[in-house]
UniProtKB/TrEMBL annotation:
<dbReference type="InterPro" id="IPR029058">
    <property type="entry name" value="AB_hydrolase_fold"/>
</dbReference>
<dbReference type="Pfam" id="PF00756">
    <property type="entry name" value="Esterase"/>
</dbReference>
<protein>
    <submittedName>
        <fullName>Esterase</fullName>
    </submittedName>
</protein>
<dbReference type="GO" id="GO:0016747">
    <property type="term" value="F:acyltransferase activity, transferring groups other than amino-acyl groups"/>
</dbReference>
<dbReference type="InterPro" id="IPR050583">
    <property type="entry name" value="Mycobacterial_A85_antigen"/>
</dbReference>
<dbReference type="InterPro" id="IPR000801">
    <property type="entry name" value="Esterase-like"/>
</dbReference>
Length: 256
């Protein structure tokens, strides 16, 4: 695999930004790596970070490069700060950035697939929310999405996880979340009623995780709507040992 620390300017955010990128390389001499290369454009996973982290965290806390090597899969890890993957009420347009500008820029820099069936998104905690939000909002652009211990109930997070000042910056208020583009329950209902394409969805959470209850609510909501969702749970808390294991499950589940 090739590892690229990419710095670029975002017109959407009006600031310089960063992403980590790993690309397939069919090298023969890398010890302990079963590397697979591809001709043409690579299938791509946009891999999202959580609230207290940044774009470096998946490379620092897991073996994502080693796991992706045998799949011929490119992985793009962007930085969105504490934005909750939203066009913030008082801040940057981070959802527009990650849904529109970032994929276009990444594809202009690197040989990445453009078809929805070869474009995937996953994330942990706040990034699990971002992954589901991207797939439910733009099902025409993502073939599959995975949430690991996702902060899937944005209204609950706005009321209990974030301090009031941060809730105001991100969402405007907790009362503004229900029925909006930040409400995954609303987005799932809209997708179910649309009759349009439905990406594959995967969700997992540890049973001792403080976000377990909201994960169960989202799972049950999707099932009630008839949205196909692969759900897994096991003993675990909100920690990197669990996510290092489960990202391997996600990679095995992706329709590569």
């Amino acid at each position: 695999m090739a590892f690229i620390d990419c710095h670029f300017f975002s017109d959407t955010l009006g600031i310089s930004s960063s992403m980590y990128v790993i690309l397939p390389q069919a090298a023969q001499g890398q010890i302990g790596m079963d590397a697979v290369g591809r001709n043409g454009r690579h299938p791509v996973l946009f891999l999202l970070h959580g609230l207290s982290d940044d774009h470096t965290i998946w490379m620092r806390r897991t073996s994502i490069e080693r796991y992706a090597a045998s799949l011929g899969l490119a992985v793009v890890m962007p930085n969105v700060h504490r934005s909750f993957y939203t066009d913030m009420a008082q801040g940057g347009r981070y959802f527009t950035f990650v849904s529109e500008e970032l994929p276009a820029l990444a594809r202009s820099f690197f040989p990445l697939a453009e078809e929805a069936e070869r474009t995937f998104v996953a994330g942990l905690s706040m990034g699990g929310y971002g992954a589901m939000k991207l797939a439910l909002t733009r099902p025409d652009r993502f073939g599959a999405a995975a949430s690991l211990s996702g902060a899937l109930d944005a209204e609950d997070c706005a009321r209990t996880l974030l301090v009031p000042e941060e809730t105001a910056r991100i969402f405007g208020s907790a009362d503004a979340v229900p029925g909006s583009g930040s409400d995954l329950f609303h987005l799932a209902s809209r997708l179910a009623a649309s009759g349009g394409p439905r990406p594959k969805l995967y969700q997992c959470c540890g049973t001792e995780d403080f976000l377990y209850g909201s994960n169960i609510r989202f799972r049950d909501h999707c099932r009630t709507l008839g949205i196909e969702l692969t759900y897994e749970e096991e003993p675990g808390t909100h920690e990197w040992g669990y996510w290092d294991r489960k990202i391997q499950s996600v990679l095995g589940w992706l329709p590569l």
